[in-house]
Amino acid sequence: MASFKLTAEMRDDLGKGASRRLRREHKIPAVLYGAGRPAWSMTLNEFEFNRNLQEEAFYSAIIELTLDGKPQKVFLRDLQRHPAKPLVLHADFMRVRDDVEMVLTVPVHLVNEEASVGIKAGGLLMRNMVDIEIACLPANLPEYIEIDIADLEVGESLHMSDLKLPEGVVSVILAHAEQEAADDSDFDIHSVDQTVVSIVAPKAASTEEETEGAAATDDAPAEGDESSED
To answer: Which CATH architecture group holds 4-95?
Structure first.
């Protein structure tokens, strides 16, 4: 797994005005919380932070954050971005404890696209989910979830329950659904079993089949209609 490092400084000046001043100085306000300890307000170097944000793995990695000279393990929990400009307004980090389960989102990587049976047959790949929320201990944290679609045919889909997650990793939504089903026998766990990826028939082919079907219907004699000769 990729290794990431950040440096930060504690801050006491809070509020919107203080945050605006920080951004003018190319600093990003942030907060660190979790692990049963108080929340700490801090600032990040804008250039260092944005450089890390360019890496996909950064969003699902354990980061070594050095705060006022003291290193500790954290992960990125949330980002607040400007609605109209490419700016990060605020960042949330959570402390990592080796014995405490983490909940975070990791990307989905598809493999064997070129070898996929359905794609070779002319099917179109539909990516319904680009990431998945998982829970695991820090030692089991995957950089991404790999999904092999080599055997996926046209008209077939892979759902959350079809995925082979790494050892020690569970899907948050399915774990909640299983608990709900255990508490309520009427709960349908399939109602939350989301489609992750599917291969569908090309639209042109579908339209052509529909047209041919309609033409065949038009050519067929109406019920009760009998031809007669004079």
So the answer is: Beta Barrel (2.40)
Contact indicator for 118, 205 with CB cutoff of 8 Å: no
Q: Domain ranges for the chain, please list them.
A: 4-95, 102-205
Report the mean per-residue pLDDT for the chain.
87
Using one digit for the tens of pLDDT, what is the confidence trace for 155-167?
999 999 999 999 9
Q: Give the whole-angstrom CA distance, residue 125 versus residue 127.
A: 6
For the chain, how far is it from start to end, CA to CA, in angstroms? 85
Long-range Cβ pairs for the range 202-206 (8 Å, 24+)? 202/122, 202/123, 202/124, 203/124, 205/122
Banded pLDDT at 228 (limits 50, 70, 90): very low
Q: What is the pTM of this model?
A: 0.76
What per-residue confidence (pLDDT) applies to 230?
45
Residues whose CB is less than 8 angstroms from the CB of residue 106 and which lie 6 or more positions away in sequence, other chains included? 59, 60, 131, 132, 134, 141, 142, 143, 144, 145
Half-sphere exposure of residue 98, counting CA atoms within 13 Å on the CB side?
A: 2
Query: Nearest CA to 195 among 147, 127, 134, 149?
Result: 127
CATH number of 102-205: 2.170.120.20
Pairing between strand 70-81 and 27-34?
unpaired
Where on the phi/psi map is residue 57: left (φ > 0), alpha (ψ -120 to 50), or beta?
alpha
Length of the chain: 230
- Kindly tell me the burial class for residue 70, based on how many C-beta atoms sit within 10 Å of its own C-beta (0-12, 13-18, 19 or more): exposed
